[in-house]
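Troubleshooting entry. The earlier prediction with N-oxalylglycine gave an output that would not parse, so I re-checked the input for stray whitespace and re-submitted. Clean input:
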Amino acid sequence: MIIEQELFEQLDFAENPLFETIITNLLEQKFAVIDHFYDEAEVVALRNALLERHRTIGFKKSAVGNWTNEEIDKSIRGDFISWIDESKITLAEELFFKKINSLVTYLNKTCFMGIFQKEFHYALYPTGTFYKRHLDTFANDDRRKLSIVCYLNEANWPKENGGELTLYLPNETLDLLPLPGRMVIFESQVIEHEVKPVKASERLSITGWLKTR
Ligand code: OGA
Ligand code: MN
């Protein structure tokens, strides 16, 4: 006999085919690429929020692990970042987290992922910058389970602009253009990846991690 609660859960299940796709892809290949995860209006609002923050507060040069040598850092990654504090966010950022939070709830409910914490930052890669092949985990901290990148570039980001996210998979490499609204999610401890040199324009994104306790 199906009790009412179970019926509700099945309905809930059926109502989230997008999240189901993400979970299936994560289980099968340890990554998922979702185009139009954010719609055009959301991307414009988030891009404006990024640019406004960049103009007013400014971003800081990203660092690599615990190193403090700027030259070494620059030879590994060249992006500028600004962490997002979820307790003081703009309307656009609220929309961003609404979707992320429902994904987290879904992951925890259906996969017992134990996601307990998250951290997100804006990222800006000026022309000429890149991020060499790496894993998103620190030697002394393995709480990062899933990496998420959402791209906020202008509507057409031609191939000539470069800045692809390259995923190193067991039998192939996958080059993903940073298309607006596209969301890439992957297992932080498993998938090595790299950001290819940006050849023109600025490459804009929000990047973050879902973490366990
Ligand atoms: C990172 C990263 C990928 C991207 O910030 O750790 O790998 O596509 N970003 O911006
Ligand atoms: Mn990374």
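This one parsed fine. DSSP finds five helices and eleven strands in the chain.
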